[in-house]
Specification:
Elements lengths: L10 H8 L9 H7 L14
Length: 48
């Protein structure tokens, strides 16, 4: 006897909550370590 429970919420009400989430800009140090800089990392897997 399972019942589906749904909330009666409009898209506008949901959008209000989405706006509460702020974008956090990553530090330059984080961006530098996150990006590949060594060309050896781009070699095919398995050696060929």
């Amino acid at each position: 006897m399972s019942q589906d429970k749904t909330a009666d919420v409009s898209e506008a009400e949901i959008a209000v909550h989405w706006q509460e989430e702020d974008y956090v800009k990553p530090t330059e140090k984080f961006v530098a370590q996150a990006n590949l800089t060594d060309q050896a990392d781009r070699a095919p897997v398995g050696g060929g």
